[in-house]
Every structure is written in C-alpha cells, then in structure tokens.
Write a structure and sequence with these properties.
The chain is of the alpha/beta class. It has one domain: 3-Layer(aba) Sandwich (Rossmann fold). It is 37% helix and 22% strand. The chain is built from nine helices and ten strands. β4, α3 and β5 form a beta-alpha-beta unit. The protein is globular. The chain starts with 14 loop residues before the first strand and ends with a strand. The structure holds zinc ion. The site of zinc ion (ZN) has 8 residues, from loops.
Length: 290
C-alpha cells in the first residue's frame, strides 16, 4: 500500500479521517477516505500500489456487462447507455468548435465509435489491453495505451474527454498538466466525475457505490474541480448534470447495503430534485484555458 503524504490538490500534509468503506466488488477489504485539513479535498489513503491496482478492476465482467443482451438490468443499462452516448456526442458538438477529439480512458470504445459515426476525429487512450481488443474487434477502432499520453503533441486537440476517469488517475498533477498542454488554446476539457456532495452520497454514506474503493482515488466536489482548474490556469465554464447516475448509483448502493432495490428509485429521484444545479450524483464540467 502507498501512504499519500501530501494533498494532491493543495500539497498540505495534515488530513482527518472521513470514513472507512469496503470494496464491495472484488476484494471485500476495507479502505479509508481522508479529507485535507487545509482545502477539504477527499481522497483514498492509503492506496494500493499502481502495479497492484489492476487486481481491483474486473475488466472481464466489465466487458461482458457492457455487451451482454441478457436480463432486464442489462437491457436497461444498454438503453440508458444509448441515450447518454447521444447526449455526450451532442455536448461535444455544442461545446467544441473543432473536430479533433482525444478520449482518455476510452474503455470498450462505445463513445469513440459514436464520435466516429458523427464525423468527429477521435483518438482513444485506454490502459486495459482487453478493452482495447474489444474496441478493435467490435468497432474497428485503433486505441492506444494510456502511456502514449506523454507522446502527444502540444496544442493538438480541440476537445479532450474524460468520462468517469479522473477519479482513477494515479499521477493527477503531471497528467493534468500534460492534458492542459495537449489542448489547443481555445480547446475544451470535458470531465465527468461522481459528486460526493450529492444527496445520494450523503444518504448512503459508506455504502455509496460511487466511492468505489479502492479504484476511485479521489472523491470530488464541485469546489475541488474549481481548485484543480485554478491550479493549472484553467476555469470551469459550465456544469451539466448526469441524471441517470443517481438511479444507477443508488441501485448499487442499496445492493451493498442489503436494502430494497425499489427504494433506490426514490433516492435517485430525490437526489435529482434536491440537486439545485450543482449537487447531482455525477456532473460534467467543461473547462477551458484561462
Ligand atoms: Zn488540500
């Protein structure tokens, strides 16, 4: 395990324990989240070594989950994915002037494929070789390993997307700086992350599925995205909700809690109704260089 000594955002050395939660998907081990005493950023501490984190991802079931047609839950999942893919492509077209897109953490390539069909020139980076293989076999995509990030030229991309990826990134500061440099001067960085100041997070506490320990290293609130943007001379221009996430995350949280799956729909709905623009379960942030 790797003990984090400095806050990834403000570099402070003093933290307080926030909560302990279990890894419900793979190891059943317990992990801690701490909050920085200076800036209030929440992060997992200690974290598994980067060389060992792969054991905590279930990439095979992730691929079968994302491609299987069986069962009501999978059908619903795929219906929601079809809708959200369209929304994501539309958002990219609406927010960005150019057509050169970089998708970091491209997974099984569904978003990249949707971009391609919409005439966007998408390059995808993905650490998992199985997921890259899936994208090549199913969509004919040529994704690169995430290691290629540091070989990409500066000022070369109109838009960079990270859909639920930033919370997994080990080298937050060096990668964020590189990502900023790859963007063109008028480029847009689109980041989607869970929001621990949402109603569903506060309701489920240690059972909240989007804490997803230990693979989620950071647990962002809107103020943290602002602080991170500020640190790298960027600014948050807009915030958009991801309204399906409160239902999906509540469903998983009820499962972990041994609760009632039907109650998840009520909590998910309540979360969206109480969000007031900045407290949705997951949010999309549009950043530009300042
Ligand atoms: Zn801090």
């Amino acid at each position: 395990m790797n003990q984090i000594k400095n806050c990834p955002i403000c570099n402070s050395e003093t933290f307080s324990k926030f909560l302990s939660a279990i890894d419900y998907t793979v190891s059943n081990a317990s992990f801690n989240i701490v909050s920085c005493d200076s800036c209030g950023f929440h992060f997992t501490n200690p974290i598994p070594l980067e060389s060992e984190i792969g054991e905590y991802y279930k990439s095979e079931s992730y691929i079968s989950h994302s491609s299987s047609n069986k069962g009501l839950i999978n059908k619903l999942y795929q219906l929601v994915r079809t809708i959200t893919l369209k929304q994501k492509v539309k958002l990219v077209q609406q927010e960005s002037k150019g057509k050169d897109l970089l998708d970091i953490g491209a997974g099984t390539g569904h978003f990249m494929n949707a971009c391609k069909l919409a005439g966007i020139n998408a390059l995808g980076l993905e650490p998992d070789a199985d997921a890259r293989g899936f994208s090549e076999k199913n969509f004919g995509l040529d994704m690169k390993s995430t290691d290629e990030l540091h070989t990409l030229p500066e000022n070369s991309r109109d838009v960079i997307t990270m859909w639920h990826v930033l919370e997994h990134v080990y080298n937050l500061n060096t990668d964020f700086e590189k990502i900023r440099n790859i963007l063109k001067p008028d480029g847009k960085l689109i980041i989607a992350v869970p929001n621990m100041s949402s109603y569903d997070a506060k309701h489920y506490k240690e059972f909240w599925a989007a804490y997803d320990l230990p693979i989620h290293l950071y647990h962002f609130q809107p103020k943290d995205i602002n602080a991170l943007a500020d640190k790298f001379n960027m600014k948050v221009e807009k915030v958009f909700p991801m309204k399906f996430d409160s239902f999906y995350v509540s469903m998983l949280s009820e499962k972990y809690k041994g609760g009632n799956i039907l109650k998840a729909f009520w909590i998910g709905l309540k979360s969206n109704l109480k969000a007031r623009g900045n407290k949705y379960s997951s949010q999309i942030y549009i950043l530009s260089k300042s």
